[in-house]
Amino acid sequence: MACAFFFDAEPVDxxxxxxxxxxxxxxxxxxxxxxxxxxxxxxPFCSDECRHEQMQLDAACARQAARAAARxxxxxxxxxxxxxxxxxxxxxxxxx
Length: 96
Hints:
2 domains; about 100 residues; 2 strands; about 50% helix; FLZ1/2/3; two-stranded antiparallel sheet; mainly alpha
């Protein structure tokens, strides 16, 4: 049975409408009498599978962002290309 906590704040003029209307991944409508799987505090999912898929997508995005940051850091610290030019312009402006 779904937790009644999420349905307490229903508008008086719209009975049956609640804050958790649909799965954040597949957009399947969430029913009052079904389980709701939460992720990141307030993101609802219709099933453990949808929640797990979103977690996998988030992990892949985090890995991609970490790789991009590492590439940028490597380029900046190696003293080549735009990183070196940017660093030299900082050194000149500080020395002036």
